Amino acid sequence: MRIAVVGTGYVGLVTGACLAEFGMFVTCVDIDEKKIEMLNRGEIPIYEPGLDVVVEKNSKAGRLKFTTDIEEAVKNNLVIFIAVGTPPKDDGSADLTYVENVAKDIAKYMNGYKVIVNKSTVPVGTGQKVKKIIRDIVGDKYKFDVVSNPEFLREGAAVNDFMRPDRIVIGAESDEAVAIMKDIYSAHYLGEAPFVVTNIETAEMIKYASNAFLALKITFINEVANLCDLVGADVHKVAKAMGMDGRISPKFLHPGPGYGGSCFPKDTLALCNIAKEHGYQFKVVEAAIEVNEEQKLRMVDKIMGLLGVEKKEGVLEGKTISVLGLAFKPNTDDMRESPAIIIINELLKYGAKIKAFDPIAMENAKKIFGDKIEYCSDEYETVQDSDCLTIVTEWNQFRKLDMERIGGLMKEKNLADLRNIYEPAKMRKLGFNYTCVGRSK
Ligand code: UGA
User: In which residues is substrate bound (predicted)?
Assistant: First the structure.
C-alpha cells in the first residue's frame, strides 16, 4: 500500500509515521521547506513522546520519506490523507483554505483512481466540498473517492492513541474506498479492528460531537468542583463515585483551570458555528465555552483570595507569583490556548511579578510572554522569594516536590494547586495557605 500524507503537523506526522510502522510506504508532504529539511535530518519539529523513535526507524527502513513535492506524492500514491491545519477564523468558524488548496493540487496532479482522505477536523460538509473542488477540475477523466477518517489522538499520547484507537471511523460513499481504508487499518490488528462505517457527513459529525462532549464533561466537573469549594465537599470523591457508574465513566472528570489546547477550544467554537449556519443554536456547548473562559479567570480570583487581596488595579504590585507548568497539559510543549496564558496575563495586569518554569514548553512560552515574565531553570529556583506558588500544569515531576524545601524558599507560603496534585490536609500541616479546585475547604 502506498500512501501520501499532506501536512506534517501533529496529526499528519503521527499518521504518516505510524502507517509506515504498520509496514506501508508513506510519503509525507509539506509546503514548509524548513520543516521538511528538519525531518529529513531526523529532527522532529514537535515534542511528542515516542514519535522520534518511530520516525527514525521507518525512515531508515525506507518506508517513510519527507518531501515538498506534492505532484510526485499525488502521482505515486493511491491513498492521499489530508492532514493540514484548519485554524479558527475571527468568528470561530474553521478556515478551510489549506484543505481546499490541497484538494486543488490533488486534482491538478491526479493520474488515476485515488482515495482522498480527510483526517483534519473539518466542518460537516467539507468532504462534499473537497469532492466538488476535485470534480470541477478533473471532470469525468478519473474516478476518485473522498473519505472522512477523523483522528482521535491526544497530544502527549499521540503514538499510542494512533496505534490503539478506541474506534476507526470511516465515512465513505463507495465499497471500494471502505475496503481500501479497512485494508490500511487492519494491518495492525490480529482480530477485527473497531471500525464504524458511515456516510461522510456522519463521520465529520462524530469528531465534533466527541470533542464537544469531552469539553462538556470537563466543564461539568469544573462547575461541580466550584460548588464543592463552596459547600465543603471533595470533588475527587464525587468524581470517583460518579465514574463508577458505567454510563458516566471515570475519564475526563478531573477538575482544573479549564480545558485548553489546539482542539477543544477550536472545535467547540466550530461546532456552534456549524449549528448556527444551519439555523440551530447549540446552547449547551455555547455555555461550556463561556464557563471554560470564566474558569481560567476564577483561578486568578483564587490566587487573590490566598493573598488576601481584592481584585483592583495595582493590587498585586510588589508580589511575586511563581508558576509551575505552562503547557496546556503535560507531555507536550504546546502552549496553544493554555490556561497559563490567561492566568499569567491577568496576574501581570494587576501588577504581579511572574517567575515561571515548564519542563518542555519554555521556548514556546518565550514567544508568548517575551520579557514580561522571568524564566527559571527548575522548580526550586522558581519559588525562591515568591509570595505564592501556582501549579498550572500537572507534569509528573511536580507531583513529588520537596514541599518543605519549597516552603522554606518562599517569602509567603501560599499554594494554589490548580491541578489538585497535593493533599490539602498534608499541605496545611506543612504550613501552607492552600487552595485547589473543588477540595479547598
Ligand atoms: C483532544 C481529545 O482528547 C482527542 O481525542 C482528540 O483527538 C484531540 O483533542 C483532537 O481533536 O485532535 P488533546 O487536546 O490533545 O486531545 O488533549 P486532552 O488530553 O483531551 O486535553 C485537553 C484539555 O482538557 C487539556 O487542557 C487538559 O488539561 C484538559 N482536561 C482533560 C481537564 O481539564 N480535565 C480532564 O479530566 C481531562
Answer: 152-155, 207, 252-256, 260, 329
Closest ligand 1 atom, CA of 329?
28
User: What H or E segment, with its residue span, contains residue 305?
Assistant: helix 283-307
Please tell me whether residue 357 adopts helix, strand or coil conformation. Answer: strand
A 10 A CB-CB count for 335 gives 24
Query: 192: buried, middle or exposed (CB in 10 Å: 19+, 13-18, 0-12)?
Result: exposed
Active site residue 18: no
For residue 215, the one-letter residue type is A
Identify the residue whose cell numbers are 521556548: 363
The model carries a pTM of 0.95
The C-alpha atoms of residue 221 and residue 231 are separated, in whole angstroms, by 15
Q: Which cell goes with 171?
A: 465515512
Q: Whose CA is nearest to atom 8 of ligand 1?
A: 154
Q: State pLDDT tens for residues 15-59.
A: 999 999 999 999 999 999 999 999 999 999 999 999 999 999 999
CA dist 24 and 27 (Å) reads: 10
Q: Are both 301 and 181 inside the same structural domain?
A: no
Grid coordinates representing 439?
477540595
pLDDT at 101 over 80: yes
State the average pLDDT over residues 277-303.
Answer: 98
Range of the domain at 194: 2-198
Within 6 Å (CB) of ligand 1, which residues are found? 121, 151-155, 211, 214, 218, 252-254, 256, 259-261, 263-264, 328-329
What distance in Å separates the CA atoms of residue 223 and residue 288, rounded to the nearest whole number?
10
Residue 438 to residue 440: CA distance in whole angstroms: 6
ipTM, 2 dp: 0.97
The single-letter DSSP state of residue 404 is H
Last residue in a domain, options 173, 198, 223: 198
In a domain, residue 314? The reply is yes
Segment 183-235, tens digit of pLDDT: 999 987 767 779 999 999 999 999 999 999 999 999 999 999 999 999 999 99
All cell numbers assigned to 420: 489538585
